[in-house]
Amino acid sequence: MGRPAPLRLAVLCAALAMGAAVQAQSVALSGMMGGKALLLVDGKPPKSVAPGETHLGVKVISVAADEALVEINGKRATLRLGESPVSVKGKSSGNKIVLVADSQGHFIGPGRINGQSMQFVVDTGATVVSLGMNDADRMGINYKNGEPVRMSTANGNSNGWRIRLSSVRIGDVELSGVEAVVTPSSMPYVLLGNSFLTQFQMTRINDQMVLERRY
């Protein structure tokens, strides 16, 4: 009966090792410290992480003035100062999105941006994903730190901001670091433009639009 102690110790060590390997569920950029990113992972105290280093399953790839490119669960995401945390719930195994046309022939469906619910409409004429300032404000996106852009609309020219969304998710499919534009006007839907769509093969089947992930 004197032998089980080392076995119990080995089991405990294995359990601790497994716990350490658990991937982060929520990651945000709280600041920059020299050439390091100050990461908030799962609500734990901020940790400065240099490019090439990993903290709680989050690997920093590169840093810039107000953003950091990280890799989580094999997927890359751009974290920006002031933006909502990236929500990570393991690898997404989905590779297909099915959208159904409404009475006017528009393909509309629910999804999430940076973990928050949105309604999308497919717009193959839009270069990038486009969302209104009202939705960006609701999500707490600091879009005015993005790149100013001049936009042409039906009502004339206006100013917008080019940003990158931490995540865009529809159904079981999620993309990270999606280029987008925030418009100064309110919009009833988020326009699902080509910065998202070009990563899929699109097929029209009667009143359905099937998007299959390209690999």
Task: Detail the topology: elements first, then pairings.
Layout: H1 4-21, E1 26-33, E2 36-41, E3 47-49, E4 54-55, E5 58-63, E6 67-72, E7 75-80, E8 86-87, E9 96-101, E10 107-113, E11 116-122, E12 129-132, H2 133-139, E13 147-153, E14 156-170, E15 173-183, E16 190-192, H3 194-197, E17 200-205, E18 208-213
Parallel strand pairs: 11-16, 12-15
Antiparallel strand pairs: 1-2, 1-8, 2-3, 4-5, 5-6, 6-7, 9-10, 9-18, 10-11, 10-14, 13-14, 14-15, 17-18
Question: Could you name the key traits of this structure?
Answer:
10-stranded mixed sheet, mainly beta, disordered N terminus, 4-stranded antiparallel sheet, 215 residues
Structure description:
With 215 residues, the chain is mainly beta. The chain has helices at residues 4-21, 133-139, 194-197; strands spanning 26-33, 36-41, 47-49, 54-55, 58-63, 67-72, 75-80, 86-87, 96-101, 107-113, 116-122, 129-132, 147-153, 156-170, 173-183, 190-192, 200-205, 208-213. Strands 9, 10, 11, 12, 13, 14, 15, 16, 17 and 18 form a ten-stranded mixed sheet that branches. The chain has a four-stranded antiparallel sheet with strand order 3-2-1-8, with no helix packed on it. A hairpin with a 2-residue loop joins strand 14 and strand 15. 30% of the residues are buried. Mean pLDDT is 79; it is low at 1-24 and 89-93. Pfam families: gag-asp_proteas (PF13975).
Provide a count of the helices: 3
Order of helices and strands: HEEEEEEEEEEEEHEEEEHEE
Class of secondary structure makeup = mainly beta
Task: Kindly report how far apart the N and C termini lie.
Answer: 55 Å
Report Rg. 21 Å
